[in-house]
Amino acid sequence: MHLPAPVSKIAKRYLPILDWGSRYNRDTLTSDLVAAVIVTIMLIPQSLAYALLAGLPPEMGLYASILPLVAYAIFGTSRALAVGPVAVVSLMTAAAVGNIADQGSIGYIAAAITLAFMSGLFLLLLGLFRLGFLANFLSHPVIAGFITASGLIIATSQLKHILGIKAEGNSLISLLLSLGQNFDQTNVITLLIGASALAFLFWVRKGLKPLLLATGMRPGLAAVLSRVGPVAAVALSTLATWGWALQERGVAIVGQVPQGLPPLTLPSLDPDLWGQLAMSAVLTSIIGFVESVSVAQTLAAKKRQRIVPDQELIGLGASNIAAAFSGGYPVTGGFARSVVNFDAGAETPAAGAFTAVGILLAALLLTPLLFFLPKAVLAATIIVAVLSLVDLSILSRTWSYSRIDFAAVAATMLLTLGMGVEIGVSVGVGLSIGLFLYKTSRPHVAEVGLVPGTQHFRNIHRHKVLTQPSLLSIRIDESLYFANAAYLQDLILNRVACEQPIRDVVLMCSAVNEIDMSALEALEEINRRLGEENIRLHLSEVKGPVMDRLQRSHFLQELTGEVFLAQYDAYRKLAGQQVTAA
Amino acid sequence: MHLPAPVSKIAKRYLPILDWGSRYNRDTLTSDLVAAVIVTIMLIPQSLAYALLAGLPPEMGLYASILPLVAYAIFGTSRALAVGPVAVVSLMTAAAVGNIADQGSIGYIAAAITLAFMSGLFLLLLGLFRLGFLANFLSHPVIAGFITASGLIIATSQLKHILGIKAEGNSLISLLLSLGQNFDQTNVITLLIGASALAFLFWVRKGLKPLLLATGMRPGLAAVLSRVGPVAAVALSTLATWGWALQERGVAIVGQVPQGLPPLTLPSLDPDLWGQLAMSAVLTSIIGFVESVSVAQTLAAKKRQRIVPDQELIGLGASNIAAAFSGGYPVTGGFARSVVNFDAGAETPAAGAFTAVGILLAALLLTPLLFFLPKAVLAATIIVAVLSLVDLSILSRTWSYSRIDFAAVAATMLLTLGMGVEIGVSVGVGLSIGLFLYKTSRPHVAEVGLVPGTQHFRNIHRHKVLTQPSLLSIRIDESLYFANAAYLQDLILNRVACEQPIRDVVLMCSAVNEIDMSALEALEEINRRLGEENIRLHLSEVKGPVMDRLQRSHFLQELTGEVFLAQYDAYRKLAGQQVTAA
To answer: What is the pLDDT of residue B67?
Structure first.
């Protein structure tokens, strides 16, 4: 295909498949096929389980693992990312859709499909307008806290399936209360199945790999084999349930899963529904994107590949739109399955497309075999998967490093656990930004002196430095802008009011990256007020971009003192002068 | 009165009257009384006019100028601030209350009273929790743009009274359209009165003072006299209307104004109403507070006095609560009347209390005289007053200084003019903060070299400096935090990937005021990735507080290079080493 150069350039940018597809060969095909088989085996129980977590029929999990993977293979930039239903996004879907309709109703399913469409559209727009940087406003600790709290909620929400009882709630507390109320109705056989599955899956995760390694197996293969443990649990428990007819003794089973191609579904365009889902769509998309990009970046770094975040938005947007039209629900790149895909040797996004074919075959052929699968086993696979997301060490790490980060993490976790995912993550983001703004509104300011034998200036309270009583050198450790302009003005005027002999004030601007209009007005006021006291105001080490801007104002003409290139020049001239005069 | 020391200290903090009251004497009394008489004369027509602007009965303007002034005299810290109804807050009241009830209805009045109570409560809480710094998040240019746009809207809204027609709308466009529709119903006599009043008031403002000065009058007295011009306009036009019975020829007059003490009113506690007014109460309070504090600060600075912003919140909060219980509506410190108060020699807040007595006497005795006062004259006093608020130069000043400030101002002005005050100011604040965050998320980064003959390092693109090919020195001009952590990582890794001979990277941290947990993780990743390429990472000029925190993490142990006190030390060691090795 020969396209005119600009068209071809645009096409290559928005269709990464044109790039890697042109270099596709037999070797990459083999690698991708092997990876696809392994990921398919892993993804079948996961898809069913996460659909269950989202409160949706199990087949929707399978459908969400077919076309979305193909869409990502065309538009995505990561070579190893495996897209599909994931735990946190499934939980967020349940929270969002649960506000609108009851689980099991047609409205619930329609809302989940619409949520996928809205998320997809939102991600696509962010990508086309290159707004991927917005995701940077989620601080790492806030994300870590949110994921940990979500993992705890998810694990708790699955306990009802392990116990064979009913329980409801979006927060940890409401879930625990609900579990406590119905605890006496526990079905012992369900509990036995669930507990064995849990024990088996934990053993597979922790104990199987060392065992396989001890037999001399390649580490990569051992890692992959230990990831497909859930399939064994699924197969064994299904056989046992079928053999002993355990469903007649109160064990909840998956039951009829429709056999066939994914249906063509259409998202609702009802403006009321859109209004109700808008905020959820934004949150789900952003959390999904952040998770996915961080996985993709980690894996790309290992092979010195690059991913393009704005194109990733387009890839994930296309995936979610594909999900909406093929009976799925919101999807994103998953951590565990992407690692398996990578370890199993996936070379290109084609592995994802082959996985889609595998899941399609499962939907066509295997669903009757899932009839007797106990829900408790699916719940066990979820619990084992999400507990690996739980990392409470983020609390101690942030506590020792920065109380402000700690406050943001703790608030995010507590609110997520206590009030649900949407409030938790919204407050977390708001708090991160609010605390950052608060810090910048009360900047650190140091009085500095000359480190003897150098031309370097440091804080007089931390270092042994030379100073001169008539010269006050102040280093401001923050950009000057509207939120701290008034603070700066008070601080300098109060400082000067304390001491009499001061004749010169030098503001050392090495850390001032910006002086906005409000701060400029504050500086003008400081200059004027100091002038009334016959104190001259000087600046030193003003950076290029800041100086450019000051030169466009009247400030430099009004300034009673000078602008020095280096603080040392200011010290030499001003302190020296005084010494001579004295 | 002898109080135990801690009680007395707390009482003095929250009751500034105890401080200045104890030093009150005959001289200050005389000064305050003179100022109070002049401010009273000025305030009578203003109170009536601003009540009209707020869509409220004129007597509510008088009531809002009695008890609130006494409350401020007890709790406020400014010696010269004159509190009462002001133009912008009246406009915001009309916008807020107009959403809830029709002008002239009981519901409208009740909502205005409730808005005053909610504003008062909000201000009081901000003050008690010492959150006055929140007002700093309004950038000066955004406030200037908002005030200018509000002034234009207010002036336009008063044209209907000058023309004697009906017109409605919260935005400039809707007002102009409405005026255009009814323009043919203009009442010529009303227009004559309005236009003469406008011409007279403009002349009083611009021409009277020079004239008085030419007669040898003291400048202070001339300034004060030229401020009470509106009273003459009020008296003359009232006499003319009464003499020629102009009200029978279609001139709208103020009519019956109840004579007597302010009534006891109670704010509504209806949660629905509170929900509808909450956002408006917050906006009105903050705008009112910011205006008031800036006036108070300007006047205090002239006499080397200090105001305490958190106590100002308490003072204004008490004023608004007093307004709510005495038939008033939201009040704040006004610019023009405070300047008059100051120029007329007010020494303490007692001048405000005396003004309150003056207005009380007016409410008791003078209201029958206001019956024939034409509304067109009140409208003219408003127009002349608010046009002094309009300052379009903020657009050109911000344009030449900073495009980001310009964008915030222009958006605030356009939205205020086009969509009303509440949307305008909300978007202005959001935009200021959003643009600041955006800037900090893509920080300026400079490659630096040694300025010959010094120990000072500057941008290689702006200065003639010495560099060494194996040593890359990068100065990051921003605090490192979650919003720019990913950007920094990409930037450094891409920069290093371009050039081969680099063996050492020094991050010069003189402008890094903070490294949060997300940025720490990014630095760890940079260190690891550079390590894989056998490039060492060093830091220089790390500030005290930042270093303290890094020492609590593992980063310094993992760092492949060193931390240098000064960039010069790094250069001497690393560049020198290479030179020897070469």
So the answer is: 96
Say if residue B581's pLDDT is above 50. no
CATH number at residue A457: 3.30.750.24
Q: What is the pLDDT of residues B125-153, one digit of tens each?
A: 999 988 887 777 778 888 888 989 999 99
Residues of B in contact with A459 (CB under 8 A): 543-544
How confident is the model over A145-166, as pLDDT tens digits? 898 999 999 999 899 999 988 8
The answer to whether A538 and A506 are in contact (CB under 8 A) is yes
The pLDDT value recorded for residue B128 is 92
Rounded to whole angstroms, the Cα distance separating B461 from B472 reads 14
Q: Using the predicted structure, report yes or no on whether residue A356 has a pLDDT greater than 90.
A: yes
Cβ pair B301, B259 in contact under 8 A: no
**Do A103 and A15 fall into the same domain?**
yes
User: Would you call B140 and A446 a contact, using CB atoms and an 8 Å cutoff?
Assistant: no
Q: Residues A298-316: what's their mean pLDDT?
A: 85
CB contact under 8 A, B568 and A485: no
Q: A85 to chain B, minimum CA–CA distance in Å?
A: 26
Interface probe, candidates A137, A140, A403, A442, chain B, greatest B C-beta count within 10 A: A140
Instruction: Check residue B500 and give its pLDDT.
Output: 66
Task: Kindly state the percentage of chain A with pLDDT values over 70.
Answer: 97
Give the pTM.
0.75
Model confidence band, residue A139 (pLDDT cutoffs 50, 70, 90): confident
Query: CA nearest B565: which of B538, B532, B546, B542?
Result: B542
Which residue range forms the structural domain that includes residue A106?
11-433
Contact B552 A516 (CB under 8 A): no
Contact B517 A405 (CB under 8 A): yes
Determine the Cα–Cα distance for residues B416 and A490; give it in Å rounded to an integer: 31
Q: Which two tokens stand for residue A549?
A: 């801007």
Structural domain ending residue among the three candidates A398, A433, A468? A433
Read off φ and ψ for residue B379, nearest 5 degrees. -60, -40
| Residue B9 covered by a domain | no
Query: How many other CB atoms are found less than 10 A from the CB of residue B304?
Result: 9
Interatomic CA distance for residues B189 and B68, integer angstroms: 37
Mutate to test the interface with A, among B465, B516, B547, B553 (most CBs of A within 10 A): B516
Say which residue the tokens 């939201």 belong to: B330
Asked whether the beta carbons of A89 and A368 are under 8 A apart, the reply is no
